[in-house]
Amino acid sequence: MKKNIKHLILFFGLLFTFSPVFGQLSPGELSKAHASLEGLNNCTKCHVLGDKETSSKCLECHTEIKTMIDKKEGYHASLEVKGQKCAKCHGEHFGRDFKLIHFDKDTFDHNLSGYKLVGKHSKIKCVDCHKPELIHHKISKRKDGNTYLGLGTDCLSCHDDFHQKTLSSNCTSCHNQEAFRPAPGFNHSQTKFPLVGKHQSVKCVKCHKMEERNGKKFQQFKGVAFARCTSCHEDVHKNKFGNDCLKCHNQFSFHQVKQLSSFNHDRTDYPLRGKHANVDCKKCHTTGNYTKPLKFNRCSNCHEDYHKKQFVKNGSSPDCSNCHSVEGFSPSTYGITQHNQTKFALKGSHMATPCFACHKTSDQWNFGNMSTRCIDCHDNIHKNYMDARYIPNGNCKTCHSENEWNQISFDHNTTNFALLGKHKQVTCQACHFRKDKTTKPIQQFKWKKQECTNCHTDVHYDQFDKNGITECLRCHTNENWKPEKFDHNTARFKLDGKHKGLACIQCHKTISQGAKKYIEYKFKDISCASCH
């Protein structure tokens, strides 16, 4: 240690003894800002012997920067700068005119300063905020304004206190940075006087008057009297009924008088029941004269005919009370018993159908001109497929039941094809709803000719065709497919002798012709040699 001190004394002694040495050792002239530190006697004020890093020495002098770094505030505490050496951005020994601070205010990312510019702040110029009169000199030592340090982040650091300390200094609890007015964060319901009724539409200045205080415009928000209505409103009754207006009036309308609601309407010829008990008196007593007699023998005395005269008969319509009650217009009291007295009695599934399904097929209810034909409410899926005589006057009941659509009770004997044998067990769909190549059901109730092949495939491939018709009933019956009616003795080849005991398949073989595969029954050659 003593040896190092001796070397240090010797080193500085040589520097002062030989003046040319100083010029060679100094890396260059200091900037104007640090000119007072020029000279070898001042080197250790910025440099640490044996250590190239000088940041710790910089911060010993620039305490405002160190304080902000320690608090993790400001640009020098941001991730972009944190841990960097001061000399990386602020070089020295480059001459008196060298600029230590290279700062482009047009491209600077203000978010790195720890104060994000939003709203109006993002549109103003730097000089609008960074000006000498707003700089806090305890934070920044410079008083000439040539610095971006020293500004506070609270609103009142830059802005005048419009409320003159009568409200909280936390401006953003009510205002935002888009504009001072309106104050979107303010909620009057959280004050001691929540706004109810008409008070909600009153302009603020009506209650919170503008005045001049301390030579500036001032609007009073705190200390406004509100204990009684007369604090703001004139007592038009001149205190005849006391100063508690809410005993009779409410905040929704001065003309809504509570005393009328306590009037016993049962003493009149029209006691208030149901919904009428909650109707505002002026709805009926429109003139404001509550002693003037009113008509009330019919609902239409007060209410419009909602159904637009659909129920008018012989110049008059029934009273609404026939279907509705004072408990509410909906639901209707009109029931199935009443409906069954009309020309369309409800039966089967119609009893479970809601009213609107039939009577409100558009925006308006329809009761007056209702048809009783099935096809006026239901789609006629048999249209153009079935003879109209089976749907007389659009009535589907010839086949269908009102209990269930799939219940078919059609009498097939009324057609020219009575159902016999196995045909009695076949469903309607099996014959009348056939599928095409796309498996889409196709209705068919009419045929040009009454032939078995209309529904059944000719498995004999026209072997028994006569004049273009294969009449299956010559051999078969409607009971089963077996050829019970066929008599071989009526054929060209009568069975006798040993032929009587032979099974059919021994003579009538299955043959194939392309895609066709069938049993051959008719032979061109019936000689013995054709088989033996």
**Residue runs with pLDDT of under 50 for 5 or more positions:** 1-23
Protein structure class: little secondary structure
| Rg from alpha-carbon coordinates | 54 Å
End-to-end separation: 141 Å
Total number of strands? 8
Order of strands in the sheet with the most strands?
1-2
Give the overall pLDDT as a whole number.
Answer: 86
Order of helices and strands: HHHHHHHEEHHHHHEEEEHEE
What is the topology?
Layout: H1 2-17, H2 19-25, H3 43-46, H4 55-61, H5 63-70, H6 86-89, H7 204-207, E1 210-213, E2 216-219, H8 258-261, H9 281-284, H10 336-339, H11 355-359, H12 428-432, E3 433-435, E4 441-443, E5 465-466, E6 469-470, H13 504-507, E7 510-513, E8 516-519
Antiparallel strand pairs: 1-2, 3-4, 5-6, 7-8
Helix pairs in contact: 1-2
How does this model look, in words?
The protein is low in regular secondary structure and 532 residues long. Among the domains are: 2-153, no CATH class; 171-224, no CATH class; 487-532, no CATH class. The chain is built from 13 helices and eight strands. The protein has helices spanning 2-17, 19-25, 43-46, 55-61, 63-70, 86-89, 204-207, 258-261, 281-284, 336-339, 355-359, 428-432, 504-507; strands spanning 210-213, 216-219, 433-435, 441-443, 465-466, 469-470, 510-513, 516-519. The strands form four sheets. The protein has a two-stranded antiparallel ribbon with strand order 1-2. Strands 3-4 form a two-stranded antiparallel sheet. α1 packs across α2. Mean pLDDT is 86; it is low at 1-23.
